[in-house]
User: Which sequence fits this backbone?
């Protein structure tokens, strides 16, 4: 199957600290990829370089056959890369519906009644239709995570990067978010999931990639990756 994303020899330094070193990663269209690694392994730096929040110092990032490493984040979003953040960042003065209409207008060029209808459709898919006219500051933690995913979906992505969407949620709330992500993938959206909850990662991922100290140390099917001695050492120490 054709690759939607190719990361080729990507490196990123912060002063004298090497956050990423020679990272190579290919992701197929429609794939569900789990990205794991201990704290400080480079996961957030890698997805920030992919989404455009950071610019890599070395290497190339190719999306749908086009090099994008010099493009700003908004241009990458318009090409089809969306990211949801671990800490939701809603517009607190707006309703849930209005929070979606902003990316619909900014990225998709959709406004008025059409934007209203599309926003409602996305909220319905997320199980948030009954909260459409509520203030975003009134949402529970799981509702905020769902709204964060909804805002990413309003950008109409081909590639969705989900950054710890389940952190701090209960087991049943994690299941709700997982069900949404799997449903979105079935609609054809390629998803990279960054998550520390291993049960969720194992259920979601078709393939797992483990980072440690800015390098990929294992890439394969979930069971073989978590059984890998290098991966276990990275998480548990010697």
Assistant:
């Amino acid at each position: 199957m054709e690759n939607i994303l190719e990361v080729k020899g990507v490196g990123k330094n912060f002063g004298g600290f090497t956050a990423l070193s020679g990272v190579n990663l290919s992701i197929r269209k429609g794939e569900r990829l789990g990205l794991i690694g201990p704290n400080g392994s480079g996961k957030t730096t890698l997805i920030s370089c992919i989404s455009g929040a950071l610019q890599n110092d070395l290497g190339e990032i190719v999306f749908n056959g086009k090099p994008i490493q010099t493009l700003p984040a908004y241009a990458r979003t318009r090409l089809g890369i969306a990211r949801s953040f671990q800490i939701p960042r809603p517009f607190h003065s707006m309703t849930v519906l209005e929070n979606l209409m902003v990316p619909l207008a900014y990225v998709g060029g959709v406004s008025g009644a059409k934007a209203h209808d599309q926003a409602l459709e996305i909220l319905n898919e997320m199980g948030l239709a009954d909260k459409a006219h509520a203030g975003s500051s009134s949402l529970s933690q799981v509702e905020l995570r769902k709204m964060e995913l909804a805002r990413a979906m309003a950008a109409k992505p081909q590639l969705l990067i989900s950054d710890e969407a389940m952190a701090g949620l209960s087991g049943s709330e994690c299941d709700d978010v997982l069900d949404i992500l799997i449903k979105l993938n079935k609609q054809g959206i390629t998803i990279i999931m960054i998550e520390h909850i291993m049960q969720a990662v194992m259920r979601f991922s078709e393939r797992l990639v483990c980072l440690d100290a800015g390098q990929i140390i294992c890439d394969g099917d979930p069971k073989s990756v978590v059984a890998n001695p290098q991966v276990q050492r990275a998480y548990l120490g010697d």
Summary: The CA atoms of residues 86 and 167 lie 7 Å apart. The longest strand covers residues 3-14. The beta strands are 3-14, 17-28, 32-36, 58-63, 66-67, 81-84, 159-163, 190-194, 207-212, 215-220. The radius of gyration is 18 Å.
